[in-house]
């Protein structure tokens, strides 16, 4: 289980979200309060949008709390849209390629949760990827593979649909392998314009997700747990929700993977 | 506050102490039970004696739990005398040079605790070192400096006396700087023959220290907290104790720094 | 192109081969003389056999010349059979999982050379691996995949045959992909008893390979380039050779991959 | 000997200077042409000015050529004033704290060259620093210490004078230690407004220094060796020069350390 935070709005210094708040992501790397494990020390990452369509990416394998580069970058860089993540490995090695966010073109993606039984369905899922996407895989995590399933399902044109179909592909692969689907998926992703998020699990315990306005509504945050108990008005997002956050507003819709509606023979 | 373990006896694989036990040092790097902070993720280190008078040294800045090299080294290397440490920084940066154990010639040293107010007396303490020892300093920790004070006080000829006089130098420097001495010192060190340890604090809360026989008495351990609740018979070492462990026996003496007995004007 | 050295014989300190000689592997990481690129600064690795059937493994991503752990480990560890490697990446990222040697069970493998056009045949080659071997892949290099092809071809029972058949699989995959086979393969591998090596290329320029006795014949070395011009009597190994080195003797045979002898329809 | 590049002018992406040119700093980390050693693989660093008075700082110990974070940061970050450095150690360990640039408040400093015989005068030089500056030292390099000597000599009010007096302090310390002064000093530093540089040596071989306009004069570069042979008009800076570069113009003055003009009894 990992912790993450994302922001969309007027430009702020990354540190205003990532490192400065009393229960910032850095603090959560040491002492998360709503996660299964309090320590998220298996690396971290930042993806932020700026002068290009593609985000900048900074990831490293130290615990977030002990990286002076992270502190300095967050203090110096301003952005109106960014994603930040601290990792608690559920399996993959501690390497930069296994740290979130993952980036492909203008898209960035980060994930709290896991694909249960991943080692038993990984190869089958990989086999469904076209060569171009398969060759983009740099690490060995379930999260990176899931992101590429989303791309393959049409992330550019239909983010929620792509996410639902990717979820269905995982569920279907688990069933084919004779195991119970066990996906936990609290994730955020962006194309550089809109910030999307999801809270979902195949069981009753989807990892937490919260939204809040930031600085009198000039920005909005979406996080796996609140980084500040005093100043913000955190709204829990219910399970099985899909969040679409723009500079104008925030819409929360039901998230219903295809697998729950119909057989997924189409894959 | 850090965690450490040391062993003296018949050759064992390092993993028998460092990584394999249920509450091994690796487990303690994640979830220490008797330390002020449960996480000891700011690097780690091993010093082990083998075919040379000087110990081998392996230190790195990752958390111990996520370093595959550490696991492999501990699985492959056998030694009859070694020291292992996981670090929770009380100030110094996370760098290899700040990881314990520290090595000088045939001596290795590691420490749980800290010199309170170190930033206010560091330079004065450094100034008391002769050039040759000063030039050996590689990092910026209170622990490495304390080790070099011990060397300067005659560690080769009188380990306990050197430790007492080094303690007195720290206490004296604090008083000169107008601050209350606040030293916590649970440490182990060795010259490759004998394993020494100390449990001491200038206040009433010296960090814990335990000894135990290992494998029917073919070896002995001394640790900051037990790594195994079932098989070993852990003996707590009382505060203000100095431990001398040889292959033949273990002697525990009172530890009374010079500063508590007489003024330390000589420094 | 990388540099490597392997040793079999009476126990020596690793430093006698790896770090101490005037043109040691460490020196070669800075200034190789017979390699395409003089700098081999993209990580390094050691695999050494000792008290277990499986080798110990130490790999890191720093240049070999700047890693104090490597120096200390080589100074302290003694072994009668070990492999050491400094890497110059031909493509894969600089990560520990991409550093040689690679280890599987009691086998260790390291490689100088590359599979030309690897990005165009990687997925087809991976698809030929059974699940158990596929799941062992930790990195993204051609070398690690080639090693697992060897295992799949029966490395345990027939090392030279397995190597020939793995080579044929690569050649065949290239042809199927419509590209000219371009394999450069100067490699060493061991099961903890015997040290094997190969010098081969699909074109006329196989990377160099040398053998030498060490310390009056109490040991033997096999290396990609000599580490010492004065004391050793280096024997170049001719291209298309397979070397079998035991504690008793050294045998050099012709190396003729199956692909050069007959169609490889069997795959 | 290291390589560095600095830029002042209209905002550009860092990659336009640091990573994209044919003989960029990244290329120079592998194959410098005018340096004593072609490889500058002992870490790297960036300091760039943006929305704050103090610069952002990113340093790491990998070779610049193998760090994907560096590439992404340079691609995403825009700045009108920045310093970039690739390191070839002349002694200090490969650690982040020993990588250039060094930062203190709004000042950033980076250096190609060395203080000859540093190990014999280091402690004497450190002893001349006031506590506040001494406590700022994080690493063990001659360069970081020299930067703090400059601060102590009044860098804020008189950059050239501070540099001259710091040089004199080094020369004087060498003479007092009975060794010939041997300082090589090709350095750049900035307060966030003006970009200063120096080319100086106590002997006849000061490391090279070049300036050039960039993009039709909307910016200017100052570098240890040209990164682009075709488009830029590189002007070599003569030895014993001090360079003051502003957005308006560039002034080159003679650099004459105090030690060459009068006794330095004042220290």
Please provide a written account of the structure:
The structure is a homotetramer of 267-residue chains. Chain A has 267 residues and is α+β, with helices and mostly antiparallel strands. Chain A has one domain (3-261): Aminohydrolase, N-terminal nucleophile (Ntn) domain (Glutamine Phosphoribosylpyrophosphate, subunit 1, domain 1). Chain A is 25% helix and 30% strand. Chain A has helices at 15-18, 25-31, 68-76, 118-127, 131-134, 142-152, 159-176, 258-261; strands spanning 3-13, 44-48, 56-60, 78-86, 102-104, 107-115, 183-190, 195-201, 210-214, 219-223, 235-236, 241-245, 250-254. A 7-stranded antiparallel beta sheet of chain A has the order 3-2-4-1-10-9-11. In chain A, 58% of the residues are buried. Chain B binds chain C through residues 13, 48, 50-52, 54-60, 68-69, 72-73, 75-78, 96, and chain C through 13, 48, 50-52, 54-60, 68-69, 72-73, 75-78, 96. Chains A, B, C, D: Pfam families: GATase_4. Chains A, B, C, D: Keywords: Glutamine amidotransferase, Transferase. Chains A, B, C, D: GO terms for molecular function: transferase activity.
